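Issue 218. Parser rejects a valid record. Input:
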Amino acid sequence: MRRGITGPVSRLLVVAGTVVAAALPVAPGAANPVGSDRVETAVRIESPVASVHESVVRVRIPLPESIGPHPAACDWLSYLRYRDAKGPSSSADADRVLIAQPGILEGAGAFDSVARNTVAVAARSGRHIEFWALDRRSNCLDDHTGVRAGLAARSYDVAVDYYYHRRPVDGHTFAGFLGNDRVGWLANVGIAQTITDEYDLLVHELPDPALRQRKVLCGGHSLGGVVTAFFADADFGGNPGYRQCAGYFALDTTISPSLSALSGMPSLSAILPSGGLDYEATQAALRSGVAPRTLNLPVLIGPETMTLLGIVGLAADVDPGGLSHLAAALPLTPNLDTTLRFLFSRDAAAFATGSPSVRQFRLTNAAVLGALMGNASQPLAFLQTSPGFFDGGPVRDKDFPLPQDLAHNPVPAPLTGAALGPDTLGIPDQPDGPLYTWRNYDRIGAPGATIYRDRAGKPYATPATEVTDIGELARSLAEQPLPFTEDYFPTKLATDLFQADDPQISRLLAHPDGITAHPTINLLGGSGLVVPNGVPRWGRVVIAPGYHHLDVLTAAADQNNHQPEPISTALADFATELR
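Output the parser choked on:
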């Protein structure tokens, strides 16, 4: 019998494992190889860190019947496995195994750069470690057929046609983005199921409990730090979570069961049903469908927007310097139109009128991706990276969603600095004009490069502030077999964490000293979410200057200061120093 969390989650049956190496990856909803409950498939992606082998691992661990009817594909757990090419083939023989929980709206593909870099750094010191980037169950609902077909055809038009013009790919037609009525089972997938999944996966892959306690480091990014804290403090049928780990790592987060340690996340309290409701009332609202079962807003957050990021990443991956016609190709759905207005409006008047529209600007595909996720143009801190800046034409301050003078006024800065980021935002200023290109992080400040400045005279980007390679970012969004983003984030996971003081949730924290039972390393972005709110009270603290919230995952191995990339270097050192 497999032991589940003591209390709210029933015990599940163990599924014996057989390894099927080099099998074809199984698409959501497709049949799985007969007689197998573990499929590992090599991933071949061109990367500057070529010494690291990547594979996608899928393990069949069925959900309990109490979850309710769900697709068969959701009875499989998936993760990306990174290991040194010269290291042992068996995870049990590695010197260390790092297992990472993703943040909100995040998938396993977001960890690609930090995983590769960390494994490579450790290998240079003669240590062979593995990095496992976890995917949540809900990503079984994603349909990435269009992006994958576009990648194979080297054309993002294929993806647009699949998602918006009902053009089939290999006989498969997009079924549409799932509404609340089609994801009822996610009303029962919260923090308890999430940490049970991590435990069951660890037990399946590393069945020796002594080995897990000696070799595994548990951690995560953003919301993943909170999930890791619950995992460490939980009890799995007499097996404390902290005994599955030798230490903890926090990537721009803290290992704490309280969300108060994180700032700058989307304003979930305004959109989730937990505000003013107790646990039982929240559950009733989720199960009845009165409350949204996934985070799906009319703008910015939802499966359509997450898919858009994948399409934009695809375009920047296959044709970075080409003139983008993506904005013109996308339909004017209310969600997409409002989202593009929010991200590309120069001020409130432009947002209200839709003029000038992003469709009036000539942008390369790389510039579109940079605009969506670059710290100098993306206003939401939890989506920010530092991949360079616009080039090719005049730029002006982006005074939306707040005027820059107000956004960075010392009075509201504790709020806006965390939610909107600390940087002045810039945006192309000349519609129907020059072709706006993208100057990559390592070309900022190059000889002859234009220095673009805000109205106060400060450069929007400098070599010290830019750390992520736009090409690697595009590759992670488009080419990974598990997604960078999460289309259907379960509302229950968020409401559970907001209601952590409720007995139904707090009883999961059976070992409240678990998070301090082992060494911790806190790897923080100097311009990320945690530092403005105060650094963690325990554990080693490493602050990477200039790094934004996603940079701790996406930063390039080669930095502009010619020093080792600080996040992966510190994480590799921590992993190899522990006894």
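Fixed in the parser; the record now loads. The CA atoms of residues 452 and 458 lie 8 Å apart.
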